[in-house]
Automatic annotation (TrEMBL):
GO MF assignments: hydrolase activity
Keywords per UniProt: Hydrolase
Keyword Hydrolase: yes
Protein name, UniProt field: HD domain-containing protein
Matches recorded under SUPFAM superfamilies: HD-domain/PDEase-like (SSF109604)
Residue ranges of every copy of the HD domain listed in the record: 84-203
Length: 398
C-alpha cells in the first residue's frame, strides 16, 4: 500500500474514533459477505467501507431507474411533484443532518437512504400490492419493496453477481419500512450475517414479515424514522399542488403541534428527534410529537393516499400488472427468446440466475425493475396492435 494511502486511512479511522458517538457504527466495522471480491480491500481503500457502498449504489443500474419511478401521484401530469429520486435525496439530507447532531456515521446513513427504495415497482405501493398478489397466486412467495431493494443490490446487479455491499447497509435497507411508525427505535445490535439472511429470505416466505424486523445500527433506525419525516409533509405539498386538498383542510390540532407546511413539519420533527435521541442508544420522538405525527399520517391516508382520484384507476393498473406478469411467465416457459423479458433482462443475467430462478420470480424481478413509462410502453408493445401506417401500392395496367 502507498504510504500516503496508509496515512489517509489511519486518519479516517482516528477522525471517526474522536467524533462518533459510542452508539454509532464506525466504518472499520463494515462487514462484507465476500471481502475477497473487492478490487481494493476495505482495509487498504481510502474510501471508507460505507462511503464506498454509496458509490456502488449510485452507479448501479437500479439507481438510474429512480429518475422515472413515481412516489404517490403516478397519474398526475405535473413536473413539480415528487419522484423516487427526489424522495431518497430528501431522506438522505434529513437523516444526515440529524445524524451529524447525534454524532452518527453519515456515510452509513447516506448509503442506506439512497438505496432504500430501489425495489419499488411502477405505480408505487399500489404496484407493490398487485405484484405481491401475483407472486402469491404463482406460488413463489411474497413481494415487498424493501426486500426487493436488497435483492437488486445483493443478487441482481452486475448480471446476477450483486454489488457486495456491507451487511450494515443491506440491513438498514431491508429494515427501513417507512410505512411503520414507532415512537422509539432501538437497534438489534450484534445481528449476524446468518440472522440477516434469514430475515431477508423470510420476507419472501412469510406474509408481513418485513414489518417485524428492525435495523442492527442506530444509523439504520434513523433512516427508518427519516423516511416518514421526508414524505409526510412533502406528500401534503404535492397533494395541494395537484388539487386533492387545500392547506386549510389540515386539522388545527395537528397544525398547532407540527405546522402546516413541509419545511415547518420537517424542522419540528427533526429537532424533536435530536432532543429526544441525543446521547441515547435509541432514536425516538416525544409523546406529543409522536401523537401528532400519528394523526397526520392517518390524515394523509384518508385524504391523500386513499383519495378517490388516486384510487379510481386501481383496477386498470392491476389489469396491466396481471397481463404483463402472465405474459412474461408464459414467454419464459415457452422459451420465447424474442420476448422483451429475454431481450431486456434475461440476456444480461448469468446462467445460475436463469437456471435456478422460477419463471414467476423472474417476471417479478423484471417488472419491479421497470420505470412507470417503460411499464406502460411494455403493455402497449405487447398488447396493442401495431399500425402499418399509410401504404399505397401503385399498380399500372398494361
Amino acid at each position: 500500500m502507498h504510504p500516503l494511502h496508509q496515512k489517509i486511512i489511519a486518519e479516517n479511522h482516528r477522525r471517526e474514533e474522536c467524533f462518533l458517538s459510542p452508539y454509532a457504527c464506525p466504518s472499520r466495522l463494515g462487514v462484507r459477505f465476500n471481502p475477497e471480491a473487492e478490487k481494493i480491500p476495505d482495509a487498504e481503500n481510502i474510501r471508507p467501507a460505507f462511503f464506498h457502498d454509496t458509490d456502488k449504489i449510485i452507479h448501479s443500474l437500479a439507481y438510474t431507474r429512480y429518475i422515472d419511478k413515481t412516489q404517490v401521484f403516478a397519474l398526475f401530469d405535473n413536473d413539480h411533484i415528487t419522484h423516487r429520486v427526489l424522495h431518497v435525496q430528501f431522506v438522505s439530507k434529513i437523516a444526515r443532518v440529524i445524524g451529524r447532531c447525534l454524532r452518527l456515521n453519515e456515510d452509513l446513513i447516506e448509503a442506506i437512504a439512497l438505496g432504500h427504495d430501489l425495489g419499488h415497482t411502477p405505480y408505487g405501493h399500489d404496484g407493490e400490492r398487485f405484484l405481491n398478489q401475483l407472486c402469491i397466486e404463482a406460488g413463489v412467495g411474497f413481494f415487498c419493496h424493501n426486500a426487493q431493494s436488497v435483492r437488486f443490490l445483493m443478487e441482481l446487479e452486475r448480471g446476477g453477481e450483486g454489488l457486495n455491499l456491507t451487511l450494515q447497509v443491506l440491513d438498514g435497507i431491508l429494515a427501513h419500512n417507512g410505512e411503520m411508525l414507532n415512537e422509539r427505535l432501538i437497534p438489534v445490535t450484534g445481528k449476524t450475517t446468518d440472522q440477516f439472511l434469514r430475515e431477508y429470505e423470510n420476507c419472501f416466505r412469510i406474509p408481513g414479515y418485513s414489518k417485524k424486523i428492525y435495523p442492527m445500527t442506530l444509523e439504520g433506525c434513523l433512516v427508518r424514522i427519516c423516511d416518514i419525516i421526508a414524505y409526510i409533509g412533502r406528500d401534503i405539498e404535492d397533494a395541494i399542488t395537484v388539487g386533492l386538498i387545500k392547506r386549510t383542510d389540515l386539522p388545527p390540532d395537528i397544525v398547532r403541534v407540527l405546522g402546516d407546511r413541509n419545511d415547518r413539519i420537517i424542522n419540528t420533527l427533526a429537532l424533536d428527534v435530536i432532543e429526544q435521541s441525543y446521547g441515547q442508544n435509541y432514536i425516538g420522538f416525544s409523546k406529543d410529537i409522536y401523537r401528532a405525527l400519528q394523526d397526520l399520517k392517518a390524515f394523509n391516508y384518508e385524504h391523500i393516499y386513499y383519495h378517490p382520484l388516486v384510487k379510481e384507476q386501481d383496477r386498470k393498473i392491476q389489469g396491466l400488472f396481471q397481463s404483463l406478469f402472465h405474459r412474461y411467465v408464459q414467454d419464459i416457459e415457452e422459451q420465447n427468446f424474442s420476448s422483451p423479458i429475454y431481450r431486456h433482462f434475461l440476456e444480461n443475467m448469468n446462467a445460475e440466475y436463469r437456471q435456478k430462478t422460477p419463471p414467476a420470480r423472474i417476471a417479478a424481478d423484471f417488472i419491479a425493475a421497470m420505470t412507470d413509462d417503460f411499464f406502460n410502453q411494455q403493455f402497449k408493445d405487447l398488447f396493442f396492435p401495431t399500425r402499418f401506417g399509410l401504404k399505397i401500392h401503385d399498380q399500372k395496367r398494361d
